[in-house]
Amino acid sequence: MTRVVVRRLLEMALVMAIVVTIVFVIVRIAPGDPAAMMLGPDATAKDVADLRARLGLDQSLPAQYGRYVWGLLHGDLGQSIFLARPVTQALWERAEPTFFLTLFSILIACGIALPVGILSAYRHGSVFDQITSTVAMFAASIPSFWLGLVLMQLFAVKLGWFQPSGYGGPGASLGERLNHLVLPACALGIVSSALIARFTRASMLDVLGDDYVRTARAKGMSEIRVVLLHAFKNALIPILTVIGLTAALLISGAIVTETVFGLPGVGSLVVSAVLRRDYPVIQGTLLVVAGLYVLINFIIDMLYLVVDPRVRY
Amino acid sequence: MSAAAPATMPTSGGEIDGLAEGVVLAVTDLETHFPSRRGVAKAVDGVTFTLPRGRTVAVVGESGSGKSVTSLSIMGLIAPPGHVAGGRILHRDRKGVVRDLAKLSNAGFRHIRGPEIAMIFQEPMTSLNPLMRVGDQIGEMIALHERISRRALRARVIELLQLVEIPEPETRIDAYPHQMSGGMRQRVMIAMALACRPNLLIADEPTTALDVTIQAQILALLRRLQADLGMSVLFITHNLGVVAEIAHEVVVMYAGRVVEQAPVGDLFARPSHPYTRALLASTPNIARDIDAEGRRRPLAAIPGAVPPITALPPGCAFAPRCAHVLDACREGRPGLVAIAPDHVTRCIRRDLP
């Protein structure tokens, strides 16, 4: 067990090292001088040279790489050019809406998908199954930003139940801030629930015909216990995989949705950084998002170990 | 057969009296149907037999003869859209209450499955939940039906593991199924089935998936447990060697119908139905099939296969494969005829040697 965890952690470190290198190289091989591109066509040669010196671009590539990695090891993602603060600080300031948005989206997605998937597998071929399968296909094919706009129009503009945009003022309470997240989280969660529901249904359908489910019934337990305790737990591994994938996708889905709902999260930070060519911020965000992907994968792998005693990597 | 169709009188609460004394289970004219695109498949078509207390009745037949469907019908475990379409399954519980299981709801079955009727399945490799420790799976059976403390439960489970002769029960109780061999898993299944002291055990081909030496061990174990606990056992098998080892009575099934029924000695000594005879002839017999010079006698295989139950011939279902078939066999469906006390056969040919 400990060996597996240690090996996984080492693999994660290797993946991150590769990601760091790729991010470093991509920025360097982008056509033109990053400093000149950041400052725009009106900048003087001296401004550009100053910026190059500030970014360390006047040093040799190995030296730059060494400084960059050294900084990373100390938790330093560099300085934002436009925000006049370290990238880590900029990311941290924007982390809360993105974190809660992703978390709520996953909870909403699972809250819809798991019961629907389980029930449509249990009653496969029924009217309920057919309707949910059709709706799921439809839901999977709508873009979350479009659904976000529809929800905004309906529940914020017409009914006024939720805030259409923003994240409250600087002094807003946690409750007020979370209220702003309801609609975007629904938009993301509903769209992602379709995939999870399909996987849950397929995986449950597989398992419900298994011999040990019949054994469970032969013990004289309630159907709910048969389905949830014996069947669902066995169906969980593929479902966990798809939930993990969805969580990773949601981080990128959040970028668009945050922009639609005017949420000051990591998504809108990176969008404005791209528009202003704030390379350190783009670089840092890329690294953090990649790190989260790897971390989610690690968590899912560890959950396999918890769920299934047969899993030994 | 004499006690197979007792006069029954419904009493209040859906309980039915009239099951002959000393009989635990009486199946009468059982019909289990599976609707399919090609029509209704009558997997079990008018099956009748009784199971006396403390006895072992073996149900024998090829794949597709309806023997497993019969046992699942008794447990109420037929998967929809299949269903029990007719007949009665009278069962006497340990308090003496008689119920018709054919009319019992799923909720009603919850108190029958486990404490009254327990079942062992064919595939020990897949019949245990791979994610649960075997001790928890056995303990779950007890905890579902009795109030018991955790400590007492663990002690009971260890006792059960000892009962089915699993070595080192104190450590095996925490093993997962994949850490055990097929024979050990089947012992776990048996321990689970016996956990609530059922008065009726249904064993659906419990040794088919096991090695021959393990088969013999499991059979010996079942026979010992049956004698010690005084259980009635319904034993489903296609193996006549196993029947000879364990059964008191034998029910031979073909294409969803009972074709012959007799006490085990009588059936082996005087098989009447051509299908029973063919089954006996096709059973490998080391003494008979090879001589001292190593010359082998050809095995007497039954030609053809069980016809699909949606396309049975109009007369006797075995007629297309029967060596003694007459024109009359293809016309009317033969009824069960008594040829000796407790010995019935579904064949019109009384003249066979």
Automatic annotation (TrEMBL), chain A:
Its main location: membrane. Gene3D superfamilies: MetI-like. The lineage of its organism: Bacteria, Pseudomonadati, Pseudomonadota, Alphaproteobacteria, Hyphomicrobiales. It comes from the Bacteria. Residues 95-304 form the ABC transmembrane type-1 domain. It holds the Pfam family BPD_transp_1_N. The keyword Metal-binding does not apply. InterPro entries: BPD_transp_1_N, MetI-like, MetI-like_sf. CDD domains: TM_PBP2 (cd06261). It is found in: Cell membrane. GO terms for biological process: transmembrane transport. The chain crosses the membrane at residues 12-30, 99-122, 134-161, 181-199, 235-261, 281-307. Belongs to the binding-protein-dependent transport system permease family. It is a multi-pass membrane protein. One of its GO terms (cellular component) is plasma membrane. This is ABC transporter permease. Keywords: Cell membrane, Membrane, Transmembrane, Transmembrane helix, Transport.
